[in-house]
Amino acid sequence: KMDDDDDDIPQLSSHTLAALQEFYLEQQQREGMKTSQGFNQYSIGSIEEDWQLSQFWYSDETALCLAKEALVAAGEGGRIACVSAPSVYQKLKELDGKDFSVCILEYDRRFSVYGEEFIFYDYNQPLNLPENLLPHSFDIVIADPPYLSEECLEKTAETIKYLTKGKILLCTGAVMEEQAAKHLGVKMCNFIPKHLRNLANEFRCYVNYTSGLD
């Protein structure tokens, strides 16, 4: 029968096929960006979103606003940590200030292209950090936990509290307001962050200090 013959031909699932197509498209886009004039390794989108890792980049305007807020909060010569918030890290690097330092804590090893400022980070092991990352050594920590769950927020909060001297800027869903207050003592700001692609969940910023986001 024809049907029996067809069964012997290996078939890729539609999910695998879609993933393959997305991979090849991303490769083409990346190569295209590298060969185009004025390629900037710090521009938002220079590393594509990976939705399987729950990655959603901020819009350029939002990233700039958060980066400027971090600079003011950190002060001159300040140290800034971006935890699962690569868009803000990239924008800070684009600003190219000489009077602050910044590092990126991220699970996605593609960000290791940023050299010594990249620190591999898995929120499931919140205190599994390099020895040279001393406690309370950052003037502000900006964090965007990848998942809207209390477990993810609680574990990320451990990292934030270990790193920060005090100031915290948290970006997460509006539904996490109570948990954010409970685990980090932060309050919701008036500022509404936007993403390159619209998210299904309402997104907000939270701080524990007097900020310029209200």
Automatic annotation (TrEMBL):
GO biological process: methylation
Known catalytic reactions: L-lysyl-[protein] + 3 S-adenosyl-L-methionine = N(6),N(6),N(6)-trimethyl-L-lysyl-[protein] + 3 S-adenosyl-L-homocysteine + 3 H(+)
Molecular-function annotations in GO: nucleic acid binding; protein-lysine N-methyltransferase activity
Pfam family, one: N6-adenineMlase
Annotated TM spans: none
Matching HAMAP family: Methyltr_EFM5 (MF_03187)
Organism this protein belongs to: Tachuris rubrigastra
GO CC, alphabetical: cytoplasm
Entry keyword set: Cytoplasm, Methyltransferase, Transferase
Subcellular location: Cytoplasm
Superkingdom of origin organism: Eukaryota
Name listed for the protein in its UniProt record: EFMT1 methyltransferase
